[in-house]
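> run fold WD40 domain protein beta Propeller
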Amino acid sequence: MNLTIWKKGNVKIKTFLYVSISLIIAGIICFVIISHLIGNISEKVGYVERFDKTENGDFFALFYGKIRHSSGKEDLLFKVKMSRNKIKGLDYFPVRLFAWGKNQVAYCGEDLKELILVDYKTKKEVYRKRMPEMIKYISANKQTGEFVIATEKRLYLLKSEYVPKNKIYTFSLKKVARGSFCWPVLSPNGKYIACGEMDNKENDAATSLVVIDLNKNSKKKLLSERFGDMPINNVYRIIYSVAWSRDSRYVAISTSTPADPSYIWVSVADVLTGNVTEFTKNTGLCSPPVNSFSGDKFIFSQGSPGYEEFGDYSNIRDPFRAKLVLLNIKNGSLEYISEIQKNINAYWPVVGVDGTYFTDKGGYFSSGEGCSIYKLKSKRVLQLFKVRGNLVSYDTIRIH
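> ok
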C-alpha cells in the first residue's frame, strides 16, 4: 500500500515538473516572439552617411543607407557611388536625393537619373525607374506611402500598393506638372503638393512657394519670389525646406534672400485662406529644416555659433547657440525647449511617434564627421549613436 502511494506521488511530481517545464518553455517562446514583434514595430532610425574619396584624380562620394535598431544593430539597405567631377551640384543639399517613406527608402542612382526603392523589411530593391532627366529632389509621405520626385523639368508622384496574395508592392508613376521645382512635399491627406518653383524669366534662381491641387489639377502661388519693388536680380527669395502641418492646412518654409551671411527665417502660409505670415524677426537665424510638431506648432533649430561676428541679433534669444524652438503659428510666439543641455548645439529636429530627435552638428548645411543623433523623450535627452561619416539624411521609421 505504501509502495502504491509512493508511485502515485512520484507520478504527480513528474507530471507537475513536466507541466511546469512546458509552461516555462512556452513562456520563453512567447516572450521571444513578442519581443521580436515589438522590436520590428518599434521606432528605428533610418540614415544616410557620406564618405568623400579620391581615386585616380576623380573626386567621388560614397553614400550608405542604413537602419539603426534600438539594440545597436544596423542593416545596410544600399550603397551608391557618385562622382563629384561628373555631377554638378552634388554638394548642394544632398539630403534632397534621399527619402525615408512608410515601407521603403528612395534614393538616386550614381548618375542621378535612376530612382531606386529598397524595402525596409526584406532589404531588397523593389523598384527602379530611369527618369528622362536628372533627379533634383525626392520626398516621402509616411502616411500614404507615396513619394514625390522633382526632375530638372517635371514633377512626379509615385504611388505604391501592397498585393497580399503575391506579397509584393506594385508601383505607378504619374506626371503632375512641368517646370522647375524644389523641396516638393505631399500633404498628409495626400491631396496637395507644396513646393518651391523657379519660373521667373528675369532670375531662374528666384523661388516662389506654390501649392498644387492634385484633384483639381491646378496650381496656386502662395508666396512670391519677389520682395516688394526690390530688383529681382539682387534681392529674391530662396527656399531651404518645406513642411506641412498635420491637418494639411498650413505650409511652413525656411527662407532667405541671397545676403551673405544668409539670414534665414520661417514663413507660414494658410492654404485655405491664402494668408501668409513672414516671421522675419523672431525666427531669424533659423537652421533648416522646419518640421511639423503639432496642430498649430512647427519646430526648428534657431541660433548658430558661426554668426557671432556678424550683425546685431539682440532680438533673438541666445543667438549664438543652436537650440530647438516651437513656433505657434496662431500668435507667432516661440517656446524654447529647455530640456536639452546648454553644452549641446541642437539641429535638424525630426518628430517621431516616440519622441523628438535631433543632431549636434550643422543640420542640412554640413553635419560634419562624427555627428551624433539624440532623442528627447519625457524630458530626458538620450544620445542614441554617433555617425562615422557625414550625416546626409535621417528620419524615423517603423517596420510593420
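The CA atoms of residues 146 and 340 lie 34 Å apart.
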